[in-house]
Design goal:
Largest sheet: 8 strands, mixed
Strand order of the largest sheet: 5-4-3-6-2-1-7-8
Number of helices: 21
Structural class: alpha+beta
Radius of gyration: 40 Å
Distance between the termini: 82 Å
Number of strands: 26
Length: about 675
C-alpha cells in the first residue's frame, strides 16, 4: 500500500497555539534515545535558529524571529532499527512508550525541511548517517551513510534540524529561550517528576536556559503521590509548588506516556482559587499549584496526535454498561482530592470570603438571609473577592436552587399520609424542619419586596430632581415607574411590574387597568373616543351585587403631569381634563367577562388622582373647582356630586412623603 505523504500531512491536525508541539516531539524522541543508551550523562541541547545575525541581535536585546530549531542529543542515534521505524508510517516500534508513529508528520506540518545527522554504533562498527525528510524528496531520503572511526574524545550524537518555520505557527512561536524552556518542561514534566531526566538546555546565541536547574530551584514536591482508584483503573496524582513562576494560573495536567496532553484551569472547579492569583504557603512565599495525573487508562485512551483523550463523555449510565470510564468521572475524583490538598492553604481565604458574604447579606441583601442558615455549603461555591453586582447574581442563583429544593420537599410532605406524622418521629421532624425553612423563606421574600419598595421610592424621588443639564424628568418617566405605558393589566403581571401602591395600596387589587390607551381600544368599553387617560382602573364588583347589574364597584382615573410644569392654558386644566374622561366612561357602554353589553350604574363611584407640582396655575384650577386644601397644604381634595367623583390633587412631594410614611415601619424592621 502506497502512502501519500502530502495527504498524510494535510490530514494531521496541528492548532496554531500548539506551534511548539513538533519541537516537543523531537525532544521526547531524544529522551527515548538516551534511555535506550542507558548512559548516566545524557544531554539534550535545543538551539534556536534566528533570522539574520542572531548573536548581535540578542546582545542588543532585540530578538529577531525564530526560523527553526536544532536538537542535539547523545543517545543511541539512528541505527538500523530506529532508521527503519522512522521510514515506516504509523510505526509501532515504540508503542510501549505511547508513541503513535506519527510525531514526525508534525515536523512537516510546521517546517519545510528536516535535516538529520547521526553518529551511532551498529554490529560493533561506528557509522555516520545523514537524512533528509521533506515533501520535496517525497518523504525520507538517506543522503549518506559512512563508516567512521571514533576516538576516546568523540561520542555518539544525533542532530535534528527543523528548518524554515511556516506560518501561522512561526508567528505564534514564543521568542524568549526562557519561555520555550518552560513550555518544554511543562510538556515533559512527568519525566522530571517521575524519573531522572537528561540534562536539557535551550541555547539562544550566548544565552542559555537550563531546564533542570530551573526545575530544581523553582518546583518542589508539594505532597506525596495520591493514588486514586476509579473502576478497574488506578490514577497517580502528583501536586507540586511552582515558585517564581511568571504564570499564576493553577492547572491540572492530564499526562499520557510521560507527556502532558491537556490541561484545565483549577479556578474553574475550586471556588477559593482565584484566577491568576498565587497561593501563599506557610512561610509566606507565593507559588502556583500544578497537578499532574498519570495512568494506564490515560495511556490507553490518548488520541493519535496526543492532543486529547478518547474517553466517553456525557453518557451517564452508558459507561457502566460497557465498562468504559467517563472523563467527568476522572475529573470529579481528581478535583475532590486536589481541593482537600489545597484546603490548608485556602482556609484563610475561605474564612475571609464567608465574612464578606455574611456582611453583604446582613447589610445590603437581607432577602438572602435564609442561605446563611440553610445553604452554607452552597455559599462555599462562590468565588472570593466578587464585586457586589456579581455577588448578587451568585446569591440569586443559589436562592433559586434552594427555593426549588424546598418546593420539592413540600410536595413530598403533602403526599405523605397524616398518620405517618403521628406515628413516626422522623416524619414529624422532617415536617417541622420544612415548616421552619418555609417560614424563613416567606420572611425572605417579604424582605425582598420591602427592599423593592425602598428602591422604587428612591428612584421616584430621583426623577423629581433636576438633572446635570438643568432638565426635569418627563411625564412618561414618572408614568413608567407607576405602571408601564401603552399596556393593560391583561398584558403584564400586575403584582410584579407595577407600583400603584405609591398612590394607593388598594389600586393593586383591581379587575382591569388601562395605561395610556385610547378609550376606543378598551375591550371592556364601547367608545369611539381617542382620549387617552394616563391610568384608568376598573375595580372588582361588590361581592353581593350580581355582575349583570353592576360590572364594577368603582372606577379610578389617574393623571400625571411633568414635574415643575408651568404655563397651563385654560383648556389644559387637568381637573377639567379628568372630568371629561369620567363623562366619556360613564356615557359609554360596558361589557362583562362574557362580552355582553351592560350598563354602568349611575351611583358607581369614581375616584380621580392628579399627580403634579402645585404651581400657582394648578392651585387656581383647584380653587375654581371648589376643592379643599389638605391639612399639610400639599394637595387638594373634594367631591363632584354630579359625576359622583372623589378627586385629589397631590403634589409629588406629598405622594413620596405619604408612601414613605406607610412603609416606614417595614423599612425600620429591616434596618434599611
Amino acid at each position: 500500500m502506497d502512502i501519500s505523504l502530502e495527504g498524510r500531512i494535510n490530514n494531521t491536525p496541528l492548532a496554531e497555539n500548539k506551534c511548539l508541539l513538533p519541537l516537543f516531539e523531537c525532544v521526547v524522541n531524544s529522551i527515548h534515545s538516551i534511555e535506550d543508551s542507558k548512559i548516566n550523562n545524557g544531554y539534550i541541547d535545543i538551539i534556536l535558529l534566528r533570522e539574520g545575525n542572531q548573536t548581535e541581535l540578542i546582545e542588543d536585546g532585540n530578538l529577531s524571529p525564530i526560523q527553526g530549531f536544532v536538537v542535539v542529543d547523545n543517545g543511541v542515534g539512528f541505527n538500523y532499527i530506529n532508521y527503519m521505524s522512522f521510514c515506516t508510517s504509523d510505526s509501532t516500534y515504540k508503542k510501549s512508550r505511547g508513541s503513535k508513529g506519527v510525531g514526525r508528520f508534525l515536523w512537516l506540518k510546521a517546517f519545510t525541511e528536516i535535516l538529520i545527522e547521526s553518529v551511532f554504533e551498529e554490529e560493533n562498527n561506528f557509522y555516520k548517517r545523514n537524512i533528509e525528510f521533506s515533501l520535496f524528496c517525497k518523504g525520507v531520503q538517506e543522503t549518506s551513510k559512512q563508516k567512521i572511526e571514533l576516538n576516546n574524545e568523540q561520542e555518539f550524537y544525533t542532530k535534528v534540524e527543523l528548518k524554515n518555520f511556516l506560518n501561522p505557527y512561526k508567528g505564534k512561536c514564543p521568542q524568549k529561550c526562557e519561555t520555550i524552556g518552560k513550555q518544554i518542561l511543562e510538556h515533559c514534566i512527568s519525566y522530571f517528576i517521575l524519573e531522572t531526566p537528561p540534562k536539557i538546555r535551550v541555547i539562544d546565541g550566548k544565552k542559555e536556559f537550563n531546564i533542570n536547574t530551573y526545575f530544581n530551584q523553582n518546583l518542589e514536591s508539594f505532597s506525596d503521590n495520591d493514588v486514586i482508584k476509579i473502576k478497574e483503573y488506578t490514577f497517580n496524582l502528583k501536586g507540586i509548588k511552582y515558585y517564581n513562576s511568571s504564570d499564576s494560573s493553577h492547572k491540572l495536567f492530564y499526562c499520557a506516556n510521560h507527556r502532558t496532553v491537556i490541561s484545565e484551569n483549577l479556578h474553574n472547579y475550586i471556588p477559593n482559587l482565584i484566577e491568576k492569583r498565587k497561593i501563599r504557603d506557610r512561610e509566606g512565599r507565593l507559588f502556583t499549584y500544578l497537578a499532574f495525573v498519570s495512568s494506564d487508562c490515560l495511556d490507553q485512551y490518548v488520541n493519535q496526535e496526543r492532543t486529547n483523550f478518547n474517553l466517553i463523555h456525557n453518557h451517564e449510565g452508558f459507561t457502566e454498561d460497557i465498562g468504559l470510564i467517563a472523563y467527568k468521572e476522572i475529573q470529579n475524583e481528581l478535583i475532590s482530592v486536589i481541593s482537600n490538598n489545597l484546603s490548608p492553604f485556602l482556609q484563610g481565604l475561605q474564612e475571609e470570603k464567608q465574612k464578606e458574604i455574611q456582611k453583604y447579606i446582613i447589610e445590603e441583601a437581607v432577602e438572602y438571609r435564609p442561605l446563611l442558615k440553610y445553604a452554607t455549603d452552597k455559599l462555599e461555591s462562590i468565588k472570593p473577592g466578587l464585586p457586589p453586582e456579581k455577588l448578587e447574581i451568585e446569591l440569586h442563583k443559589i436562592m433559586s436552587s434552594y427555593e426549588l429544593s424546598l418546593k420539592e420537599t413540600g410536595v413530598k410532605i403533602l403526599r405523605t399520609p397524616l398518620e405517618h406524622f403521628e406515628r413516626f418521629p422522623e416524619y414529624s421532624k422532617e415536617y417541622y424542619d420544612f415548616l421552619e425553612q418555609y417560614n424563613d423563606l416567606g420572611m425572605s421574600k417579604l424582605a425582598r419586596y420591602v427592599i423593592h419598595r425602598k428602591i422604587i421610592i428612591s428612584l421616584f424621588e430621583k426623577n423629581l430632581i433636576v438633572d446635570s443639564d438643568g432638565r426635569y424628568s418627563l411625564e412618561k418617566d414618572i408614568h413608567e415607574i407607576i405602571f408601564p405605558m401603552r399596556t393593560s393589566s391583561d398584558e403584564i403581571n400586575v403584582f410584579e411590574k407595577q407600583n400603584l401602591w405609591i398612590i394607593d395600596e388598594r389600586l393593586s387589587y383591581h379587575e382591569y387597568l388601562s395605561s395610556d390607551q385610547s378609550l376606543k381600544r378598551l375591550e371592556n368599553l364601547d367608545s369611539e373616543s381617542n382620549d387617552r387617560p394616563d391610568l384608568l382602573v376598573f375595580n372588582h364588583p361588590i361581592a353581593f351585587v350580581p355582575d349583570e347589574e353592576q360590572p364594577y364597584s368603582s372606577v379610578v382615573v389617574i393623571e400625571f403631569k411633568r414635574p415643575t410644569r408651568e404655563g397651563y392654558s385654560a383648556s389644559e386644566d387637568p381637573i377639567a381634563q379628568v372630568y371629561s374622561y369620567i363623562r366619556q366612561v360613564r356615557s359609554g357602554k360596558h361589557k362583562n367577562k362574557d362580552g355582553r353589553l351592560i350598563s354602568l350604574r349611575e351611583d358607581t363611584p369614581f375616584y380621580a388622582y392628579i399627580i403634579c407640582d402645585l404651581t400657582e396655575e394648578i392651585q387656581t384650577f383647584a380653587v375654581n373647582s371648589s376643592l379643599t386644601p389638605t391639612p399639610d397644604l400639599q394637595g387638594f381634595f373634594g367631591f363632584n356630586p354630579g359625576l359622583k367623583t372623589y378627586i385629589e390633587v397631590l403634589s409629588f412631594n406629598k405622594l413620596v412623603k405619604d408612601a414613605k410614611q406607610r412603609n416606614n415601619i417595614l423599612f425600620k424592621k429591616l434596618g434599611i
